[in-house]
Amino acid sequence: MTTVTSPLAGRAVGLANVPDPVFSGAMVGPGTAIDPVREPTEAVAPVDGLVVSMHPHAFVVVDADGHGVLTHLGIDTVQLNGEGFELLVGKGDEVKRGQPVIRWNPAAVEAAGKSPISPIVALEASAEALADVAESGEITPGGELFTWN
């Protein structure tokens, strides 16, 4: 079993409330989303593992059980071409849960006309594989988002 923790401080809102049909329809995979605090912050690793994908707006960490967890910082933020995002680790790096991965500013994302709501998704998983999914309430970095059986 893998416990996936929040990479961000903010409010859990659930995938259904993400303003993007690919995420809200769980087409990428099941999980939840965080509406982050509007201040410069660091997104941290949600699990211990290997960074297998790294972009300014998104990263995937695969844990020892082979579970891939996508953290996507905001919606349509790929269109910002990396502006306002600072990578703190690289693809191929080993990370520990809670380790800073990307520095960004959700308020700047919002000012650029994009939603800062950030999906955290269990890749290649079924909804039935997840338990205790946080879909509401305040959350801190490292707070439990869901378990993956």
Enumerate the spans where pLDDT stays under 50 for 5 or more consecutive residues: none
Q: Biggest sheet, strands in spatial order?
A: 9-5-6-7-11-3-2-13
Report helical residue fraction: under 10%
Tell me the total number of β-strands.
14
Distance between the termini: 5 Å
Which CATH architecture? Distorted Sandwich
Q: How many distinct folded domains?
A: 1
Largest sheet: 8 strands, antiparallel
Report on this structure.
With 149 residues, the protein is mainly beta. β6 and β7 form a beta hairpin. The protein is built from two helices and 14 strands. Helices cover 7% and strands 38% of the residues. The radius of gyration is 14 Å and the shape is globular. The termini are close together. The strands form three sheets. It has an eight-stranded antiparallel β-sheet with strand order 9-5-6-7-11-3-2-13, with no helix packed on it. Strands 1-14-12 form a three-stranded antiparallel β-sheet, with no helix packed on it. It has a three-stranded antiparallel β-sheet with strand order 4-10-8, with no helix packed on it. The chain has one domain: Glucose Permease (Domain IIA). The longest helix has 6 residues.
Sum up the structure in keywords.
single chain, 149 residues, mainly beta, Glucose Permease (Domain IIA), 8-stranded antiparallel sheet, 3-stranded antiparallel sheet, 2 helices, 38% strand
Task: Write a brief caption for the model.
It comes from Kitasatospora arboriphila. By secondary structure, the chain is mainly beta. It is built from two helices and 14 strands.
